[in-house]
């Protein structure tokens, strides 16, 4: 599929063209054993889960014009060791669920979690499945999210800087142990957040045909 970027940088106009190849990929299954109530929640929790789903849906539809993100992002943890990759189909207690919408990173409870980009907190709280959660809007449809936190250091409406500590990792919600779940959402779509940690928009554009426009 052909793709074209047009942008202004340093007062100069540029355009970059190239191609995107879409390839089928089979994600492996991951079988996990968790507390049974995290697979089949009690009836008394259904209202809470439904309400949280609406709050999350509203957050993911956030679209602000002002760009606050710059690449490469700040790694959320000082050390990045993956324990579960993006895309794996989760099977909890033998019951299949949706694919993994982020990356799980090894972290003991209480590890500082930093904002990948500057932005605004659009949702923060303790949710049934995701546990302690923080969503950051960085503009142009770029949203990052952290789950299973033990301590949240920000609240909805707060402005945060790139690299600011926003929370502490933990083992809350539907988990098998302490870790950090890190999600990247682009235009409402969850994507793998890890590849962007080692590159930048400028580096990616070098693979295309970059031209200055008079």
Order of helices and strands: EEEHEEEEEEEEEEEEHE
Kindly report how far apart the N and C termini lie.
26 Å
Largest beta sheet, briefly? Answer: 10 strands, antiparallel
Task: Name the shape in a single word.
Answer: globular
Radius of gyration: 19 Å
How many beta-strand elements? 16
Q: What proportion strand?
A: 35-45%
What does this structure look like?
The chain has 214 residues and is mostly beta strands. It contains two helices and 16 strands. The chain has helices at 46-60, 201-205; strands at 2-9, 12-19, 29-32, 82-84, 89-92, 95-99, 103-106, 112-114, 119-127, 131-137, 142-152, 159-160, 165-169, 179-186, 189-191, 209-213. The strands form three sheets. Strands 4, 7, 8, 9, 10, 11, 12, 13, 14 and 15 form a ten-stranded antiparallel β-sheet that branches. Strands 1-2-16 form a three-stranded antiparallel β-sheet, with no helix packed on it. The protein has a three-stranded mixed β-sheet with strand order 3-5-6, with no helix packed on it. The two termini are 26 Å apart. The model has no long low-confidence stretch (mean pLDDT 93).
